[in-house]
Q: What sequence folds into this?
């Protein structure tokens, strides 16, 4: 379990990959578990493929700060190609971690992270999603990976609560729930901590 | 009932609970989600609202005016250029004394085109005769919308109400929220029973006819008197709301102001960020405080003067540039309000956050550093500056 007063997470993705959706889902589930939450995207010109950022604050007391997050505890990178253009670990706390969607190992990622020497976690969210859902929806496996790595929510209760949330959201398409739950579990098993 | 909702979801839910007669809708970022969520309620048969989709905001406000004049309760939502396109009708709604409720999700006006938050939209409409209530977060956006009708529809007021929240920062952020039960909301908001309306056959009347010079001014004075009367009604409604919700509201919120020597005056979500910074400064012994303006129209001038009277220096933070060459709109109101005080604090104006420029706790600390310096030296320096500029202007 994370020990900080507020756990701050920054998401990097590209428009259309579901970074915002995953960020809001995490806020939703953490809220269900009695936490105080914030989940918010940062918008620029909206278009598919453009870099987007989203943020989570999760805390035991209400956090009133409404600025973006500059010194996150965790960074999630949904699209590996962003590493070439964005300093994703900028401001990341030294004892924090970056979680990257890639087929590479954590060790292989160090040279691409501009001097970051802290913890790197990797997960092949694309493969997991394509194997289970038949399409590339990397956001749910990334969500599971950040929950597992950060310990911000207990994994058992997270899975139970998110299943409730999925069942509500996809009441008309129960098969979607099963697939998404499977990707979450698979991601929690496979995430590699460097 | 605890939940987690974005500001837009919270306001759409408030409208669902109220179940108004008519909604005039036209989408514009970042307010679009309000009519979107509400369209679901309409499609699912959860409300009986006449949902009127039109081709522009000029028309959506016209729909509201026509419906309200006919005796129906009407609502709408918009942002930025949408509000600008309603501009003509805002004055018509207010002068016809039609208590329409409009959710304004604040966004910078073009140009340059920008979709993010500042108050250039609603500040442009500040003299249109609408009551303006600003929210710090999703909870306040929800609560303010529920209080809007009991305020605006009150016979002593009869003015339209604009409930404002910060675009994206509040409208698109999911946070915890306490919702009231629908039956409690309906009882609190009550039915809309205007004394006079277009479809009342016992008392035919015209709405919005030409007003000759011999009477025009009397009507404007009545409107001005109604705006003055709104202040007391806003407080009455807040007291009633506190009884059903446990949440306290005033014309503004004072945060750590009792012994404050240095103070900020600002609006909206920045208040939350400022509170966190003030907590930290208080730990360091700085007597810092904050006044968060909730009601901008009617402007609580006398009350604000009393709240700031004990301070040594205050910074008025404007999230819109009024191009007056003499400071932003909140500064103009605040400085005017302080004029009658025998001893006034030093006052500076900092324009910040335009077009979504982020406002951080570190920015708040810098402002307090500057206020402390002013008190120490007795020199105000430049009175009207812009935060964090690349230009040569003195750093705010």
A:
């Amino acid at each position: 379990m994370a020990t900080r007063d507020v756990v701050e997470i920054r998401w990097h993705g590209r428009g259309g990959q579901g970074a915002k959706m995953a960020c809001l889902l995490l806020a939703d589930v953490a809220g269900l578990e009695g936490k105080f939450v914030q989940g918010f995207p940062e918008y620029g010109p909206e278009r598919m493929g453009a870099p987007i950022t989203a943020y989570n604050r999760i805390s035991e007391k209400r956090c009133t700060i409404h600025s973006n997050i500059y010194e996150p505890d965790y960074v999630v990178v949904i699209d590996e190609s962003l590493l070439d253009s964005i300093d994703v670990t900028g401001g990341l706390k030294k004892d924090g971690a970056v979680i990257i969607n890639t087929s590479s190992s954590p060790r292989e990622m160090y040279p691409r992270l501009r001097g970051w020497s802290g913890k790197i976690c990797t997960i092949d969210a694309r493969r997991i999603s394509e194997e289970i859902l038949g399409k590339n929806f990397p956001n749910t496996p990334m969500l599971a990976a950040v929950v597992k790595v950060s310990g911000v929510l207990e994994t058992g209760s997270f899975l139970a609560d998110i299943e409730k949330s999925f069942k509500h959201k996809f009441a008309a398409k129960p098969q979607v729930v099963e697939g998404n739950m499977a990707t979450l579990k698979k991601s929690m098993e496979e995430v590699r901590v460097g | 009932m605890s939940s987690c909702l974005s500001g837009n979801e919270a306001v759409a839910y408030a409208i669902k609970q109220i179940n108004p007669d008519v909604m005039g809708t036209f989408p514009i970022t970042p307010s679009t989600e309000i009519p979107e969520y509400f369209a679901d309620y309409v499609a699912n048969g959860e409300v009986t609202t006449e949902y009127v989709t039109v081709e522009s905001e000029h028309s959506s406000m016209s729909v509201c005016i026509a419906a309200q004049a006919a005796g129906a309760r009407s609502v709408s939502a918009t942002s930025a250029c949408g509000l600008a396109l309603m501009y003509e009708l805002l004055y018509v709604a207010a002068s016809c004394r039609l208590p329409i409720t409009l959710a304004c999700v604040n966004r910078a006006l073009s140009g340059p085109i920008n979709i993010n938050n500042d108050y250039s939209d609603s500040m442009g409409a500040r003299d249109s005769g609408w009551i303006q209530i600003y929210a710090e977060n999703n909870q306040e956006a929800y609560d303010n919308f529920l209080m809007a009708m009991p305020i605006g529809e009150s016979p002593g007021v009869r003015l339209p109400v604009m409930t404002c929240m910060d675009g994206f920062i509040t409208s698109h952020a999911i946070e915890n929220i306490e919702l009231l039960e629908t039956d409690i909301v309906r009882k609190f908001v009550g039915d809309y029973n205007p004394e006079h309306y277009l479809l009342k056959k016992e008392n035919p009347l015209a709405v919005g006819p030409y007003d000759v010079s011999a009477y025009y001014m009397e009507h404007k004075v009545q409107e001005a008197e109604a705006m003055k009367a709104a202040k007391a009604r806003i407080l009455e409604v807040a007291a009633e709301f506190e009884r059903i919700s446990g949440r306290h509201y005033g014309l503004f919120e004072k945060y750590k102001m009792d012994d404050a020597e240095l103070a900020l005056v600002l609006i909206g979500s920045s208040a939350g960020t400022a509170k966190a910074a003030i907590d930290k400064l208080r730990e360091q012994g700085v007597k810092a405080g904050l006044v968060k303006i909730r009601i901008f129209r009617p402007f609580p001038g006398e009350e604000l003067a009393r709240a700031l009277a004990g301070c040594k220096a205050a910074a008025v933070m404007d999230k819109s540039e009024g191009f007056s060459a003499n400071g932003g709109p909140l500064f103009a109101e605040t400085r005017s309000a302080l004029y009658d005080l025998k001893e006034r604090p030093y006052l500076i104006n900092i324009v910040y956050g335009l077009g979504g420029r982020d406002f951080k706790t570190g920015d708040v600390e810098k402002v307090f550093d500057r206020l402390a310096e002013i008190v120490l030296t007795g020199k105000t320096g430049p009175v009207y500056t812009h935060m964090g500029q690349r230009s040569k202007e003195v750093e705010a």
User: Anything to note?
Assistant: Chain B has a mean pLDDT of 97. The first helix of chain B runs from residue 7 to 18.
